[in-house]
Design a protein that fits this description.
Distance between the termini: 41 Å
Radius of gyration: 30 Å
CATH topology of the largest domain: Fumarase C, Chain A, domain 2
CATH class of the largest domain: Mainly Alpha
Order of helices and strands: HHHHHHEEHEHEHHEHHEHHHHHHH
Largest sheet: 2 strands, antiparallel
Mean pLDDT: 96
Number of domains: 3
Strand order of the largest sheet: 1-2
Number of helices: 19
Helix content: 55-70%
Shape: elongated
Low-confidence stretches: 1-6
Strand content: under 5%
Structural class: mainly alpha
Oligomer: single chain
């Protein structure tokens, strides 16, 4: 049985040891401990493949598999946990296997390297996290669609440049956010397709002379196929960069929604009250109700963007193939995936429990001139060129501002003084509800248009879900 001093996988060539500081600097167990299940699954698949191809006898393969299953149970039940002084999860599992099997444990690593092994395990971990994140994002989209349907007739100001622009509905506004998250889900599914290739069997970089059946390994572990090039298999981290981009953009979309909830919950807006479960108070000001969870989501989007930037910087100067720099890809990936998943779940709950102050939204349209475009469009329908109509209505708005009134205070006489083609029905188009209901165009803010959007979104989500199911539940 190996001594403690020989538990390094690479120690035979060296006379001396790493300095304590260098050893601590290079340890990754604190991060890759997350991969213990995938380490064992990949090892079991590798052992089974070696038994099938004759690299191990059936008896040897069964003994190794039984021992690996025992280790799985020990970790799951808390009976054994790797010591902190192990270099990484691969070293820790192999050392435990030696304790159970002695020299036979040394046959497990035949024809494989930590290079192809870790690349495989991270992909397996990502596949599981893809399941969790996809479910969470589907839930967020479902919540947004539920609210959109409930508020398809709730009027509110639509903004450009943070200025009142045109009336819209809350339902239409929420569906705009929903479509962003649908795109995030689509990107997640496509990233998953590109990620779902198996590096195992590539060895350190050039393949192996042993009869490794890479197709069998890929099928056993649920991958679509092996990575075609062994050098690419061990050095490629595009899939991590791509997931970090998906995560950073999803967090950006969450941050935009969070910012609106923060603004809308202020007394100046008063559009929404967030639940006590998602707000906190002040240690000095008794009246405060702070939107802390929304603020934290907004803030942590910066961390996701930073992790993406760090990953791209990590990769940009690396020659082929594996370099130790790649050890630091996992903290970035794990941190982003954790952040996105918790943020999506919290945003879903926050929206579900929020109290929407629809009367404040409607009141915000009073006197805001957001139906001025309707007056210009009215003149266009009477044969006036739009640019001329725009100029005329701009003069009407200027007069209203000078008089201190809104468009709703105008009468027909005033309108006709600006242009004779205004008739009595021009007063109807000033009404925000009329403006909203008139926008029945595809993608518009009219209630029936919002409902068409919701139905279309459901179709898109069903297609994306099918794509994800094919990735996550291979036959």
């Amino acid at each position: 049985m190996r001594s403690r001093e020989s538990t390094k996988m690479w120690g035979g060539r060296f006379e001396g040891k790493l300095s304590p500081e260098a050893e601590a600097f290079s340890h990754s167990l604190q991060h890759d401990i997350r991969l213990w299940k995938h380490e064992l699954q990949a090892s079991i698949a590798h052992t089974r493949m070696m038994g099938i191809t004759g690299m191990l006898s059936t008896h040897e393969a069964n003994r190794i598999i039984d021992a690996l299953l025992e280790i799985h149970a020990e970790i799951e039940e808390g009976a054994w946990r790797p010591r902190e002084d192990y270099e990484d999860i691969h070293t820790a599992i192999e050392a435990r296997l030696y304790e159970k099997l002695g020299a036979l444990a040394g046959k497990l690593h035949t024809g494989r390297s930590r290079n192809d092994l870790v690349a495989t395990e991270v992909r397996m971990w990502l596949r599981e996290r893809t399941t969790d994140l996809a479910r969470a994002m589907l839930g967020l989209c479902a919540q947004l669609m539920h609210l959109a349907e409930r508020h398809k007739e709730t009027l509110m100001p639509g903004l450009t440049h943070q200025q009142h622009a045109q009336p819209v509905t809350l339902g239409h506004h929420l569906m705009a956010h929903c479509w962003a998250f649908i795109r995030d889900l689509s990107r997640l599914a496509h990233a998953g397709d590109r990620m779902n290739l198996c590096p195992l069997g590539a060895g350190a970089l050039s393949g192996t002379t042993f009869p490794i059946d890479r197709e069998l390994l890929a099928a056993e572990l649920g991958f679509a196929m092996p990575v075609p090039n062994s050098m690419d298999a061990v050095s490629d981290r595009d899939f991590i960069a791509e997931y970090l981009f998906v995560g950073a953009l999803a967090m950006t979309h969450l941050s935009r929604l969070a910012q609106e909830l923060i603004l809308w919950s202020t007394p100046e807006y008063g559009y929404v009250e967030l639940s006590d479960e998602h707000t906190t108070g002040s240690s000095i000001m008794p009246q405060k109700k702070n939107p802390d969870i929304a603020e934290l989501i907004r803030g942590r989007s910066a961390l996701a963007v930073g992790n993406l930037t760090s990953m791209l910087a990590l990769l940009k100067g690396l020659p082929l193939t594996y370099n130790r720099d790649l050890q630091d890809d996992k903290p970035l990936l794990f941190a982003t995936m954790d952040t996105v998943l918790s943020s999506v779940r919290l945003m879903t709950d926050m929206l579900a429990q929020a109290q929407w102050r629809t009367e404040r939204m409607r009141a915000a349209l009073q006197g805001d001139f957001s139906t001025a475009t309707e007056l210009a469009d009215y003149l266009v329908r009477q044969g006036v060129p739009f640019r001329e109509a725009h100029q005329i209505v701009g003069g009407i708005v200027r007069e209203c501002l000078q008089r201190g009134v809104g468009l709703e205070a105008l009468d027909l006489e005033t309108l006709q003084r600006h242009h004779p083609r205004f008739e009595a029905d021009a007063l109807e188009v000033i009404d925000p509800e009329h403006a909203v209901r008139a926008r029945t165009i595809l993608g518009g803010t009219a209630p029936e248009s919002v409902m068409r959007q919701i139905e279309q979104a459901k179709e898109w989500l069903a297609a994306i879900e099918n794509q994800l199911n094919e990735l996550l539940n291979p036959s």
